[in-house]
Amino acid sequence: MNNPVLSRLALARLADLEEVIVAWADKVMALSPYDQGLVPREEVEEGARIGFALILRRLAEGTTPPELVTHSERLGERRAGQGVPLASLLAAGRLDARALWQSLIDRAGPGDLPELLGGAHLVWEAVERHVTGLMAGYQRAVLEMGRQREDQRRAWFARLLDNDGRNPDVVRDAGRVLGLDIAGRFSVAVADPVVGAGLRAAATAVAAAGLRGHRHESPTGDVLVVQLPTRPADPEKAVLGFLREVPCGVSPPVDGLAKVPHAVRLATAAARTVRPGAGGPLRLEDRWLDVFAAHSPELAAELAGRVLGPLAAVGEAERDRLLETVRTHLAGTGSIADTAAALYCHRNTVQHRFARFRELTGRDVRAPADGAVVALALSAAGLR
């Protein structure tokens, strides 16, 4: 609803706006970071000149000029690009209400005040519409800048991988964009995209802990690069803590950003050995047999079939006993006495089972070469 007094005073103020602009700009330029020259005063005044005119038109005409919304949003977008904090932008925007209200009072005669006070809410509503537009434009710009930064980070990390860290210029520029020290020490985790949510949560936890890193999504596997801290004494253990519920492969630490592509390949190799139901990270150092078995599924299947296939000739109970004995021995110290103790049986029983296993497969697990082949065959069978 239009207010005749407010409308008349708004039209009068529209004709003489410079005094209000100057007084308002004095207050705005005292705010941080405007006081540091982040936005030139001339630009601040020009933005206010348009904004105030549009708000006064709304008060005079009783309807919102379409330009008010677009001006407010464009101004919010520009201030976001200039790095003005949102709180400072809104503080400047809300000074509009005080400046306009005071300017209207200055124009009012004694008989105008009662009706002017009755229209005070219209002034606040008009300014609030302007401030809402500022906020919408600002937030949209921040989201877009965030997307652009993320796109840039993704592109430079992909370039680092494609270049394999061989070009020092690419390494340097990738480090700058990603915020990583090119001389730092890094650990890499790779997970199947299906469990990408877990890696995203780990990346968030890494950032919350004050560590630098980068998460990269790809169809073949999600990657998390973490720059290891100089402390604690075992920084790799600290990183593994962030990944404790994420089924993923983890590379050994590498020195220098140029080595990260190599670390990605190592972590990817470890990630291929993750078995269904796994609930935590797998270090490459702990998965060498599985890594080699997973490297060529066809050869792994052939190996498992040739080495362990003959065990199908015996009953399930005997086969399970033989495999349990072999696994325990290969995972232990290599001592028959220790194997017998672990299985709670006599050493002669262990010797008999080894002999039976050799009879069926032709492999003597007590011989280093045969033991290595059997261990690899067991890993291949487990991955299948």
TrEMBL record:
Taxonomy, superkingdom: Bacteria
PucR C-terminal helix-turn-helix domain mapped to chain residues: 322-379
Pfam families for the chain: GGDEF_2 (PF17853), HTH_30 (PF13556), RsbRD_N (PF14361)
Coiled coil: none
Domain CdaR GGDEF-like: start-end pairs: 165-272
Stretches assigned to the RsbT co-antagonist protein RsbRD N-terminal domain: 19-153
Family classification: Belongs to the CdaR family.
The protein's name in its UniProt record: PucR C-terminal helix-turn-helix domain-containing protein
Organism in which the protein naturally occurs: Streptosporangium sandarakinum
